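Narrative progress, year one. The postdoctoral researcher (J.K.) led the effort to move from monomer predictions toward full complexes, under supervision of the PI. The following entry was the first complex the group processed end to end, covering 425 residues in total.
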Amino acid sequence: TLLGFFATDAPVAVEAVQQILREAVDKSFNAISIDGDTSTNDTIAFLANGASGGPEIDVSSPAYEELKQSVTGIAQKLSQLVVRDGEGATKFVTIRVRGAATEADAKLVAATISNSALVKTAFFGEDANWGRILCAIGYSGAIVNPKATSVSFVPADQTESLRLLVLGEPQNVDEERASEILSHDEFGLDVDLGSGNHETVSWTCDFSYEYVRINADYRS
Amino acid sequence: RRFVATMPDKTKYIAKSGTYPKGFLINGVSSGVKAKGALDLTMLVSEKPCNAAAVFTKNAFQAAPVRVSRETLQQTKGQGIQCLVVNSGCANAVTGSGGVQDARLITALADKAVLGRGDGGLPSTLVMSTGVIGQRLKMDKISSGVMKAIEGLGSSHEHWMRGAKAICTTDTFPKVVSQEFSVNGQTYRIAGLAKGAGMINPNLA
């Protein structure tokens, strides 16, 4: 279950509190997955008490965007901490989907990869099994043109990406380099659908033996 | 090939200090719902009424605290919220109408204990629960836990960390983030807590 809250001493109008929370959560907690199970209890709250004074911030205030950025930043940091602490997780993976025909398509592809048990077990095994990634993209339900799709692993240190598939054509993958990238606690996956200009980012983790052990022994 | 799940060092993600918003007090205590005296109940109290909002799971089987907190925000139109009570021993989920009554009782208890409000007024407390599904809350323990939490409320980093620890279930570290930000020359603070390690694929709205 995901629970959380934000508290600020800024004076924020109710409508702004609602709007900021909604947008911040869409770019953070709604963009993570550990095991694909949605809890009955998930709740994130946002409270603003105005104790620091100053003019009230509403949706039309110049300060609104700045506040929204701060809340979104905090929400992203917290949601990433949740993924890093995923039950049994040994890897933290950032999935960026670009070139989607719609934002919904981008999210669908990212979520499908994030939730694929086979992709996640490959992450655990540090196995550059990009066929499983393509498989997930293909059944996501998004508009996908296989001949326009490119996929790369992105090292956490932002050195050169390892291209796995370019415009539908498999690349001659340097398996040593792939293993080196996947051996780190953290890495990225870049998917370019080549079908538009919408993009999204999501965060996921691997599936390890530990996940099964923890959940075989915890009644919740 | 044999695999070993070697967990990365996660202690680096634990906040060592923080800058916390004015006018908020927090505490985490052991109410006894969790075994062995583990921290399992967090209370956040604002000295001033807050404007508030929340997003909730879209799972069709929404737990009692989800239903009650949504009801509270609808009734109050998100105004006048001053307390948040989170328990982590028992999820109070799929507990039927009895579970809803329990969640409402926590709201009423906190409203009365913190704000001195009696029956009949608008609620000002939001509730959250996590933990074991399908069991009723031990309300005697929750009630005494709320009173215990109120006694030790504070605003230090240690208080925020206790609050973060007391909402954890299978989490391996408490999750606290805080920062200061300035808007038009005015400085504000914001802090956030979260818990979650499993059953995580949020669809919040």
